[in-house]
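PROTEIN SPECIFICATION:
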Amino acid sequence: MKYSCLIHDNRGMGESDKPLARYSTSEMAKDTLEVINHLEWISTRQLHVVGVSMGGMIAQELALMIPERIASLTLVSTAARLVNTIGYWENLRNRINMLDAIKDRIFSHTWLDAPDDHGQFPTNGDRFAVMELEKRQDVEGFTRKGFICQAIAAGWHYKSPQQLKELADKVGRERIQVLHGTLDKMITVPHGETLAKELGEKEGVTKIIVDGRGHALHMEERDMYIKALESIVEKTEKLR
């Protein structure tokens, strides 16, 4: 096997602990680092890190902690900091209430209304609704407390232009790519544009903006998403 994958539940969700506390993306990155170290994935330029949404924020923190171990960094539908015009608490309430309108917030209507990619349901939207209902039936793994704690962590995430420059300098701009959909309602596309610009789009960071797609590019544009990951892994493996 050429590669091994690590997918884990962040604190607050799934089978991980759900302490009632103020979560932060930096603390969640430390959680990730503990798991990686436990697996003894400690070699230079060994890790191909992919982070989506809040995971992309955690990935930024992780890259700042161990830049020499990052082989590639893919940041999807994420931001260096959330910018809004309605105030922090109103924005947080909107993110929490997202539970009641999650399909519309995450996906483009074109994808939701299209026939199910897997052929099991009439539309992609129907399949996602079933997946969401099944998840929420897991009352131990998916709790409102955990969701709110994670929403607060994402809301407080902040990386300055100077911190992003440091990240890119240490990781290497040719090892970084930013992906974002133009119809992302969760973290709007200007966030992705700013992230790519401040990381150094003109100096080698790859930016992929996908027209007409929403927050979940890994579902809406699966083939494109896989090709983007394969491309940066292949490119950066040659840089070893």
